[in-house]
Design brief:
- It contains nine helices and seven strands.
- By secondary structure, the protein is α/β, with parallel strands linked by helices.
Length: 245
């Protein structure tokens, strides 16, 4: 085990956080109004009494972008966690299906599935993770002769009172970052570097965001408004009407 060098963590974040900002900007630029109109629930928007095209478009955009950003940033945090663990415990990115990180600590071999937060999946997704854990355990015990292979569901933020889930342990927030780094305060230490050039990059994003809001609002008015009012029947038909073969 090696001591974690926080300067190395800061350097890694500063070199890689730009990719998160660029990917969210690219995702915004590629977005099409028809795409988000197809994916979102028009009945919900009617129930919320949305009356203007811009309010509806903005809600659609914000809902879509929030989901996209969570995914993109989760992938960045996964890379950060693997990098940190590689410096402390010589861990590595796993090639096993559904497993993100492998490393040895205190004579125990750990396989880790990294998720953003604690409420990440339904029962089917959790069952798939457990199946992946069991498959990886069998392979590692056979190929590497390991007697103890312990599965961990690591979550980058949040809290979890019940750690032992039977088939695996679940570590969240401080417990997860401390586990992979042997530094119990790392979950706080990493927050400041994540803001590297955030103001500058968010300024570019907001400019593009406002531009697309205006473009989509005009498109929505042209396609789904009649005499200045939202034509809900036309919108629902576009979203949920039977496809003609």
């Amino acid at each position: 085990m090696n001591q974690l060098n926080l300067d190395d963590v800061v350097t890694f974040v500063e070199l890689n956080i730009g990719d998160f900002h660029q990917r969210r900007l690219d995702s915004l630029r590629k977005l099409k109004l028809s795409t988000i109109l197809k994916r979102k629930n028009p009945y919900l928007f009617k129930a919320k009494n949305l009356l203007t095209a811009q309010d509806l478009v903005k809600l659609l955009m914000d809902s879509h972008l929030s989901s996209q950003e969570e995914t993109i940033f989760g992938e960045f945090l996964e890379k950060l966690a693997i990098h940190i663990n590689s410096k402390v415990f010589n861990g590595r990115k796993s090639s096993a299906e559904g497993i993100d990180l492998e490393f040895e600590r205190d004579n125990i071999y750990y396989i880790v599935a990294i998720k953003s937060g604690p409420n990440w999946g339904n029962s089917s997704q959790i069952k798939r993770m457990i199946d992946n854990f069991k498959k990886a355990q069998r392979i590692l015990r056979t190929s590497m002769g390991l007697s103890i292979v312990r599965p961990i569901n690591g979550c980058c933020y949040g809290q979890e009172q019940l750690v032992d889930k039977g088939d695996y342990n679940k570590l969240c927030g401080q417990d997860f970052w401390g586990f992979i780094s042997n530094n119990d305060e790392l979950y706080i230490d990493i927050i400041e570097p994540l803001g590297y050039k955030a103001h500058e990059r968010n300024k570019n994003f907001i400019e593009e965001y406002n531009k697309i809001i205006n473009i989509f609002t005009k498109q929505f008015i042209d396609d789904f408004c009649e005499e200045g009012l939202i034509d809900w029947g036309k919108l629902v038909k576009f979203n949920s009407g039977r496809k003609v073969s």
